[in-house]
Amino acid sequence: MIGLLLVNGKLCKNPSFATIHDFTYSGFDVRGNTSNQLRAHVNLITADLMPGLNTLGVSLARIDFEPNGGLNPPHYHPRGSEVLLVLEGTLYAGFVTSNPDHRLFAKILKAGDFIAFPFGLVHFQMNVGKTPAVAIAALTSQNPGVNTVANAIFGGNWPINPEVLTTAFHLDKNIVEDLQTQNWVNPS
């Protein structure tokens, strides 16, 4: 029996069987489908789609935003930091520091501007312009993961007890229960 070698949880291909296709990706120029609740689309290229990224500690994402409010909602990456470069449009982007300060660092970004999102901090982007926006994100992990805050809090498969959320967020129980019944989507 031949043993399988896993690196970072991914099957490590025998280098003699690697091809250029393991190290390239085509289609990053194609606009994503933004006809969803958030009016945005994230095309994340990780080691799952491009095996040559495994062990390199990088991944890339293209984010497309509809005009006037297309949103990549507050989220964080448990295994990576991120830099985001605006290619087209105008984005309001920022992040919030952790306990105890919870400082907001945010700015309006235009084409050619970029912002760094430190490891594990909640961050977001929203198109505040009247035209579509496009950004490219580079992440410091071949598998950065993503945890969208609202989805995790209100859209989990097993709802968090409403009493926990009413106390934590100072919300009425009916509001929490209503939020838990809504369809929470990811922008991908």
Can you describe this structure in just a few lines?
By secondary structure, the chain is mostly beta strands. It has 2 domains: 31-145, Jelly Rolls, CATH 2.60.120.10; 149-183, no CATH class.
Give structural notes:
By secondary structure, the chain is mostly beta strands. The chain folds into 2 domains: 31-145, Jelly Rolls (Sandwich), CATH 2.60.120; 149-183, no CATH class. 12% of the residues lie in helices and 34% in strands. It has a 5-stranded antiparallel beta sheet with strand order 3-4-11-6-9, with no helix packed on it. The chain has a 5-stranded antiparallel beta sheet with strand order 8-7-10-5-12. A hairpin with a 7-residue loop joins strand 7 and strand 8. The chain starts with 5 loop residues before the first strand and ends in a 7-residue tail after the last helix. May play a role in plant defense. Probably has no oxalate oxidase activity even if the active site is conserved. Residues 26-177 form the Cupin type-1 domain. Belongs to the germin family.
